[in-house]
Design a protein that fits this description.
Blueprint lengths: L10 E7 L9 H14 L3 E8 L11
Parallel strand pairs: 1-2
Length: 62
């Protein structure tokens, strides 16, 4: 019987984005789903990124 290989944990970042508030979505909901997804795969989350602005606004921050 051979020994299983040790696999290093992947390092990943989470990116959650909601462009409008009226769609019933929140970055917190997305983050929870992605954290569960990463946890099941034994991935290490190194960064969390969130955006709450619309990409269609002409006056958005650069």
């Amino acid at each position: 019987m051979t020994k299983p290989e040790k696999v290093a944990s992947k390092k990943v970042a989470i990116y959650a984005r909601v462009s409008t508030k009226d769609k019933g979505q929140e970055t917190a909901n997305q983050t929870t789903v992605m954290e569960t997804f990463a946890d099941k795969r034994n991935w290490s989350i190194t960064h969390h990124y969130t955006e709450n602005e619309s990409g269609g606004k002409a006056d958005r921050p650069k």
